[in-house]
Input
Amino acid sequence: METRIAPHNDILLDVRNLKVHFPIEEGVLLRKVVGYIRAVDGIDFEIRKGETLGLVGESGCGKSTTARAIAQLYEPTAGEIYFQGKDLCKLSKEDLLEARMHMQMIFQDPYASLNPRMTVGDIIAEPLEIYRGRGFLQVTSSDIRKRIEDLLEKVGLSRNFVNRFPHEFSGGQKQRIGIARALALNPKLILADEPVSALDVSIQSQILNLLHDLQEEFALTYLFIAHDLAVIRHISTRVAVMYLGVIVEIAESAELYKDPFHPYTKALLSAVPIPDPQVERARKRIILEGDVPSPDRERHGCYFYDRCSQRMDSCQTNIPRLTQVKPDHRVACFLYFKPS
Amino acid sequence: MQNQEILRVENLKTYFNTDDGVVKAVDSVSFTLNQGETLGIVGESGCGKSVTNLSVMRLISSPPGKIMGGDVFFHGKSVLSMSEDELRDLRGNKISMIFQDPMSSLNPFLRISTQLVETLCLHQGLSRSEAREKAVQMLRLVGIPTPEKRIDAYPHQFSGGMRQRAMIAMALSCNPEILIADEPTTALDVTIQAQILEIIKDLTVKLNTAVILVTHDLGVVSGMCNNICVMYAGRIVERASTDDMFSNPKHPYTRGLIRSVPRLDKTTKERLYSIPGTPPSLIDIPECCPFHPRCQHAMDVCRMKYPDETDFENGHKACCWLYGDSNRAA
Output
């Protein structure tokens, strides 16, 4: 994959101190909030035009919540999300609708994300129809029809599939339909939430190639979420590693895989099996103890403290902030800087 | 010790009758498993990996499934002609299984202790207190902290990784000769996957258990297995030692599979290799090479007849007409 590093003023999306907390409620009639799940607990990152930012982490670390908060499907508890210079959290309903036109999602489960009672044509046309109905798009029905057929071709399906239903397609083909829908409005940013995780190996590489080709053709910017580190390495320009609702490390892709700093990134990378028996025998695995803790309490120290093999006293009482330690390489760990 | 055969599967055919036709889920599959060996069975969803192993345990419900031919020999004794009593002694005791989703294979209404103790009392003839002691010991072995307390928990009180550990403890508690692990780590995160694979590796060496590891993840087999079988559309298309399989794959499907996986240790600047098309439906599949529509080397003969196995060296075998000059004449 090309590593096109855009100049820094070319920032398409800027996320600052984003927090998404979900209330835990108890009681039958009188529901009372007894605590919060801190799904996303203060993250900062930016996405530059034309790049792919890979967001990686284990289940429950807040990857999907981040994507959904960016699309304003969840209301953030705190923080700002600047998309093309405007803070999405502060926009009126009408302005938000317009901003979202340039931002589309692709989902993990191609079976659940397509309405089984709609034809492929209707599914892809829906975003166009919505924006036409609100007066954002001046197009005729035949324009839309033409657009649907072009899109089907672009994602590697036949133009004749317009009147078919989702159940007639395989998982890989369904994912292609989901991608065509996401492209319908000519978006600038695509939020892809585990788009290849549900697919078989041979189909996964087809979809990854398709996403790569489309990015080149339409100058797309991706936020690409996955738990598979090899897939992330392949597709991403830069990679952010999440743990328990925070970003622990963010760097240029090749740099992160070659020279990871955070103990969690190191353990994560060493845990991934490599399909080559000779390499695999020579590797040393860092086995983490225990499970990821529940994100239901406020933390006053490093989020990785419980499982870290290199923890120090200062990690328990100070939260390491994401800090630049090398050009374009930020890490949240006191092994690399002193607590302030 | 190493090369003593314990399980032999010969020409196993398991078909399912459906309204749309006969699904040949497993079609003439043969393999052997030796003592202490870890055999990997690799393939994409629907290729018959799981059905093969369920057939070995005689766990295919009939109807709709039926074992149409072939046989399975455990220490030379035919499993297909065993009585229910003999089967009960085999399942869970001599051969045990762990599955992908530990939540659906543990009974949510029963404590972990009840489920572990039940197995031990039934198969090993231990008293309840002996069984409980052994169960605690097994849980400690798989790395559950304070097992004497946690043993009385219910499955929902365990995390995914801990449930899979409990399943492994249960599966290994009767000292089985074979452990069949069907996608044991697919539902787990990578760091937990690493823990679980490490436990399976350690314990099976310690207890001298042979393992059949079913997975779609080439990375997992490369670190765990001695030998690998690659399945496609109900058949084993290639078998070899792990090193041979990765360094010198013969079948175009195996080659494609290995090349299409992005690797953690390599930056791929260009596009990934990908196998065109999708796996075929197994309904009324014709008697030709099922891979030919996706194969870049497809020849006329591939569309006519299924190739015999060509023997390379050291037990490396593949079913492909590319190597089949001798059997094409036959």
Remarks:
- Chain A has eleven helices and twelve strands.
- The CA atoms of residues 241 and 247 of chain A lie 6 Å apart.
